[in-house]
Amino acid sequence: MGTLNHFSFGLITPAISYLMACVGAALGLRCTLRALAATGASRRNWLFTAAAAIGSGIWTMHFIAMFGFTVDGTEVRYDVPITLLSLVMAIAVVGVGVFLVGYGRNRNRALLLGGLATGIGVAAMHYTGMAAVRLHGEVHYEVGAVVLSVLIAVAAATAALWAAVTIRNVWAAGAAALLMGVAVSSMHYTGMAAVQVHMHPGRAELGGATPMQFVFPLAVALGSFLFLASAFVALSPTAQENAAYRQAGELTVEEFDRAA
């Protein structure tokens, strides 16, 4: 059995990965709140952005953390199509969760179902990403730790959605993003604790790409997207602000007409 190390670069990979999970969660939860205050196509677009933000944050967190994952006696590579599938899966399944929250008629039921879908999205992304790992051995899992990792993801994702949607202030939003970051990171390292690698005596050539060839450039691109999108959302007016602007414009026109 191969000896695993999840912290080959010390605490830098878990710290940066947690930061990325929090950024993605903060942006996604903020967009979800914007969606609840909007209608029509605007609500749909905010929810799509929320799903992309949370899903990208989950994916980036996972693969930055995986930079610290090494196994003695073998190189670690990643199957490119499956790695990309894990990103699509994260966005798609999380999208189900935020759309349930955005369009649910019963708020409590919508939060429960949305938290369930979002938590499952976190877990699905993680284990699909792990399916992309290529090394000189076979990866096996301890079932109890896998189940625990999924429960952690669902419980924390539900709590984060509840806090963000129910307590609508900047402190609640920040706490919810930190909690979502904890959910993703805890799920990741609990899932990684379940991993066992049984080494193969042969040394056939590994397929796939190294982390620096593929994962790192994509993680940088997604991280840039998250930070730029966060700046855009922070600077864009809310629905209430837009309404106030429209009202101010209408009042100005009326005053002009009266003066004329």
List the helices and strands and how they pair.
Blueprint: E1 4-5, H1 12-36, H2 40-66, E2 70-71, E3 77-78, H3 80-103, H4 107-131, E4 133-134, E5 137-141, H5 143-166, H6 170-193, E6 195-199, H7 211-235, H8 239-259
Helix pairs in contact: 1-2, 1-6, 1-7, 2-3, 2-4, 2-7, 3-4, 4-5, 4-6, 5-6
List keywords for this structure.
7% strand; 260 residues; two-stranded antiparallel sheet; 8 helices; mainly alpha; single chain; elongated
In short:
This protein has 260 residues and is mainly alpha-helical.
Q: How many β-strand runs?
A: 6
Instruction: Provide the spatial order of strands within the biggest beta sheet.
Output: 1-2
The residue ranges in which pLDDT falls below 50 over 5 or more consecutive positions are: 241-253
Calculate the mean pLDDT score and round it: 82
Strand percent estimate: 5-15%
Label the overall shape. elongated
Please outline the major beta sheet.
2 strands, antiparallel
The number of helical elements comes to 8
Q: What's the number of domains?
A: 1
Oligomer: single chain
Assign a percent range to the helix content. over 70%
Structural class: mainly alpha
| CA-atom Rg in angstroms | 21 Å
Distance between the terminal alpha carbons, to the nearest Å?
87 Å
Order of helices and strands: EHHEEHHEEHHEHH
